[in-house]
Write a structure and sequence with these properties.
11 strands, mainly beta, 8-stranded antiparallel sheet, 2 domains, Jelly Rolls
Length: about 200
């Protein structure tokens, strides 16, 4: 069907309601889980990749976002950093059950450079706890960390940072940020951090 734009249910939702948070990627392409808490059902006409028209039954939450849905957010877009610091909080993420964090370290320079990256979260907007601590980085590398709120039970002491290479089995709360600690002689690191959220 030359000249025809194929729209998914999420594409249509975005045009009607706008997006939530960051850039949506791949939402509405699988089996829809219908959450019956707030919001409403909608019947949408959508074109398949083959160009055929089909009716999709979807559930929208009270903010007009298709449930479940996925979003990609850039948590930390540093170019080159030479010292320790904290990134900006990404807020309003409490609705998501899964967070897949991707760290891309493209450059490490200096003598014996070290980079410790921490993924922090907070539930009440004030009290910060450490959800994950990546294995210490000394060279260009890519890491992926998954946080999940599914099927969790038990008690975890979060009064101190997690050990290196540890993701705590508690997921993230409403907010996420990246914190970094850099060591070595004249160290510099170039890296970016993204989070793929699934609701």
């Amino acid at each position: 069907m030359s000249g025809t734009t194929n729209l998914s249910a999420q594409d249509i939702a975005n045009k009607v309601y706008g997006t939530h948070g960051g850039t949506l990627d791949g939402a509405g392409t699988g089996t829809l889980g219908l959450n019956k808490v707030g919001g409403r059902y909608e019947k949408l006409s959508a074109l398949t990749p083959q160009g055929t028209l089909k009716e999709v039954v979807a559930w929208f939450d009270d903010k007009g976002v298709l449930v479940p849905h996925e979003e990609n957010l850039q948590l930390d877009g540093q170019t080159t950093v030479a010292g320790s610091g904290v990134g900006t909080w990404a807020t309003g993420l409490g609705r998501f059950k899964y967070a897949q964090i991707f760290v891309d370290v493209s450059l490490a320079t200096g003598t014996s450079p070290t980079l410790d990256l921490y993924l922090d979260s907070r539930l009440d907007g004030t009290t910060v706890y450490n959800a994950a601590h990546l294995t210490q980085i000394t060279a260009a590398i890519q890491y992926s960390v998954q946080l999940s709120k599914a099927n969790l039970a038990g008690q975890i002491d979060v009064s101190a940072d997690a050990g290196a290479g540890t993701a705590r089995s508690m997921g993230g709360a409403d907010d996420l940020r990246v914190r970094r600690s850099i060591g070595g002689t004249s160290p510099q690191f170039t890296f970016k951090t993204w989070v793929h959220l699934i609701g």
